[in-house]
Amino acid sequence: WEGGIHFFEKPPANVDSTIILGAYYFAYFLVFLVGWIAFRRWVAKGKVGISKREITDLGIYVLLGVMLGAKLVYVLFYNLEFYLQNPSQIFLNWSGMASHGAFLGVTVAILLFARSFKRNALELFDRCALIAPFGAIFIRSANFLNGELYGRSTDVDNPLAMRFLMKDGQGRDLYAKLGPGQSGGLQAAGDNAGQAGSELYALVTHEGGEELAPADYYLEPVSAHHGWELIPEESFLSVKSFWPIRQDGETAKTKTLVSRVVTDPSHPSQLYQLGVSGVLLLLVMVIVAKRAKVKGEIFAWFLMLYGVSRIAMEFFRQQDYQRAGGLFDYFSMGQILSLALIVSGLFLLKRLKPNSAPTTPPSEQEAEPTSNTEGE
Hints:
Elements lengths: L22 H22 L7 H26 L2 H6 L13 H19 L3 H26 L53 E7 L2 E6 H4 L9 E3 L2 H8 L10 H4 L1 E5 L8 H23 L5 H18 L18 H19 L12 H4 L3 H5 L1
Helix pairs in contact: 1-2, 1-5, 2-4, 5-9, 5-10, 9-10, 10-11
């Protein structure tokens, strides 16, 4: 699986290319498909107070809310400096998305839809809260297939530990940056030593710090176990900005440098989130839905439970490189935003009145617009 659906032969590694329909965006399609099917069944059974023709309208509102909200929050909270300098790259296929931004976008979209169509917003929030766990199921599956958002380093003896291919800023595997004439994949330590009069060097970490040292001294022949690969000098600068290697003096001009291309043994945190924020949360939300007494209660519990699950899972997930100092040494941006979800859920639950309208919606006939409304 190459992280996308390919209808044609994949371009060579040394040719810049972009996958149009990747696993990530296909996962979003699956979430919307589940939501569309669920809403049609709920409307048919009279469990939600909108008409069948309004399902498509709601879907368009939510789709725009997800895309705009997820992009906006990612740009503002995760990589603002870069996108201020490169605004044209915000909506490129490889730029990031933030799940918390998706929640914000959906919230605004539903409020706008409810106001435009004169429907109950809390009722719609409750139903969307039952669909949201599928987002974690499908999207975290795509993250795993793409080898992105992997976890923190763990012991090599951990039976769940995995190695993931490191990527550049555009989500492309670093091993694909080999120049023309060089073989793809990981290479043994001495394969290219001495090529073009250069010596293979690698970054070595020890108790005294880090230093550049001959790679054939520190790396064994089975280099795939160590995660190093020959990187041509002309492409090293673009790699360095994401995975720095300290250079001494004229090292970059006289040595052939190498860079990490696979991680240390790491937690497959995407699968953890799939199980906890996806499958487990879905089961809990079904129970909550059966016991809910007022409109908005399901949504409030979802905000709190997702926030708690995300905070817990972030302890296994590798932090974003943009946030690696001060407060963020202890709390990730995802945890801070999740705390805001928990507070919002508590506030909403406190505001809900026990004697307010029950979660049972009006009948299908009540939900259908009149003929006069349809003509407007």
